[in-house]
Amino acid sequence: MWEEDNDDEDPCGCPFCGNFGCEHLLISIDETFRSADGGPLAEAFNTHWGNLTEAGGDDFDEHEPWLDLVSQCEDYGCRDSYYRDSGPMTATNTIDLYCASKEEVSRSIKKLNNLWIEMS
Ligand SMILES: [Zn+2]
Known about the structure:
The protein is α+β, with helices and mostly antiparallel strands.
């Protein structure tokens, strides 16, 4: 019985329509594993982060650049952070960023892509 109530148990969804994985989603960032695992910006984000860590070499201190990168994305989206239950003993901190409209999602992706191209 209670399994069917899972949707009600979710701490939050899209702040604009209440759903998950809707057209407002810009990116889903997994803070624990430092990678993006959802949303239309995910590929560009992971590529840029890969470039940064590669350029940084073996002694690369990921902490600051990671926070910078996340805040660059946050500048363009509405933040919603929650722990996604990925197993009995693990809690993954995931940041979901949403935009108010599909158009805004496209605009944000373009701006961030330009920013990241300039930086690389
Ligand atoms: Zn939505």
